[in-house]
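Practice problem: Putative auto-transporter adhesin head GIN domain-containing protein
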Amino acid sequence: MKKIIIIALLVSSSIIAQTKGNETIETRSFSIDNLTNLHISLYAKITIDQSLKEGMTITTDANLFDKIETSVEDGKLDLNQKEWIQPSKKMVITISAPNLKRIEKGTHETLILKNLNAEYLNLMAHLGKIVASGNVEQLNLGIENGTIDASKTIAENVRVNIWGYGKAKVFAENEIYSIIKNDGRLELVNTPESLKGDTKKALKKNKKLAKNNISWISFKIKNNSWNRNNFFVVGPKQNGSKFSYGFPMMPGAKRNEKWSIGSKIYKVNKLGLRKLLVEIKAEDEGKVVDLF
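Answer key — structure tokens:
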């Protein structure tokens, strides 16, 4: 009983700590002088446009600005929430930093990079998507389970490291070197002079995957537990890449889904760790699939 009371107190205190937006939308500017390293953990519509004057603007509820980390220390900005916040509308952030060398993101949002003009740039996508355009001499990409579309970034040389089921799409004029593990996927929109590392093997794999026949079926899933849980689904697509997203479900709730056969559903705990629950099979079509 004592343990239950403690858990209840912790849950209630976390709910109280949440700050909801007051619906008074404002746009404020912030100085980000000498920003070289940007880490994104904040859910927002973020655009980095290197053609603009150096600085950062944030558009959101007036009472949430002091809950957002905006200070640059030793050239690094960890764009995150200081406390748990719930904006009344999607937060919008625009950044321009001519000295930016490294960008790392860990959210499911899409990050837009425009008008790039750099000698060196390192992009890392653990989750979500990065869409980049411009010119870079040396472009380095690190991908776990995200996607980086740099097909409109003209790069002299590209280095790609994919260690999850992520995907990269690139334009390399001179050389591309890649390390592709597990279910990672690499696409080239041109043919550079030099293909090194796992590049040739990855391109050969693409041709093989294109012949795959992926079937999609309709069914329902049910959270047949007494608790509200967070889930994450990952499934194969026809082009060899994967779809994935997270979602919550209340106790006893059902959802209509149309996923590919072989899709896997995970339970996500408070630390973000995943536990495999169910893998969708052909015989699940038209049925209710219990998650526990």
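Discussion: The first helix runs from residue 2 to 17. Students who identified this feature from the tokens alone can consider the problem solved.
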